[in-house]
Amino acid sequence: NKYGISSRLTFSNSLLKEEHLSDRRCNSLCEMFSSGKVRNGIIVHSDLLLEYLSKKYPDFYYVSSTTKVQTRFEEFHNELRRSEFKYVVPDFRLNKDLDKLNELPSELKDKVEFLCNECCWIGCQDRAKCYENVSRKNLGEDCPDHICHAPNGNGGYKFSKAMSNPSFIGIDDINNIYMPNGFTNFEIEGRSLGSAIILEFLLYY
After folding, report:
1. 154 HSE (CA, 13 A, CB side)
2. What does pLDDT average to in each consecutive run of 10 residues of the chain (205 residues)?
3. Of 58, 77, 119, 176, which has the maximum CB count within 10 A?
């Protein structure tokens, strides 16, 4: 609020049920973030949650989460056309689908928010299962950890690995490819990775 910067809550659990909508802590956060001079946003996956939030907290804007893993451009295009969302974060594997991206009308380009520094293997077939496992654990379900079978999947996040990913969007890409074609929204992954590596991202970008 002090600097006029929009904040976002991340409510991207994919397995929510009616009983979860009354969660006291999450509703308290919504009440806190819905006040002030700056319009804040919420990243959502569940349409059930989106409907609830839109009615109870009409002052937020909403972001369609990349956890939906919409790897087909047609799915992503349909998501962009939904009026409920101010921004839509495509699956990182669509980042370089420039022929189709550049054909979008300007009003839809304004809604695209690219995930720049994804580290996951671009050939991963288990991304949706990985996100589902996180959702189950956050709901308190007793379930085994998701085991990543991707090449070097046990090596953890490294910015150098992200930079070698075919989906990586670097500074030159932003300045020379994306912005000249009308794309202005970019997201840096990694809020839970620790301050040192986040500083590395910020220094680079």
Report:
1. 3
2. 92 94 96 91 97 96 95 96 97 96 98 93 82 86 79 74 92 97 94 82 91
3. 119
Give, as one character, the DSSP assignment of residue 21: T
CA 194 – CA 189 distance, rounded (Å): 12
Question: Taking Cα atoms as reference points, which of 25, 40, 61, 188 lies closest to residue 118?
Answer: 188
The token pair at 151 is 């090449």
Cα–Cα distance between 95 and 87 in angstroms, integer? 15
- 3-class DSSP string for 107-145: HHHCCEEEECCCCCCCCCCCHHHHHHHHHHHHCCCCCCC
pTM of the model: 0.90
CB-count exposure of residue 121 (10 Å: 0-12, 13-18, 19+): middle
Q: What angle do CA 93, 98, 104 make, to 5 degrees?
A: 110
Q: Computed over its alpha carbons, how large is the radius of gyration of the chain?
A: 17
For residue 15, which amino acid is it? L
Which of 110, 109, 108, 64 has its CA nearest to residue 90? 64
Query: Do 41 and 6 form a contact (C-beta atoms < 8 A)?
Result: yes
Contact between residue 49 and residue 11 where contact means Cβ atoms under 8 Å apart:
yes
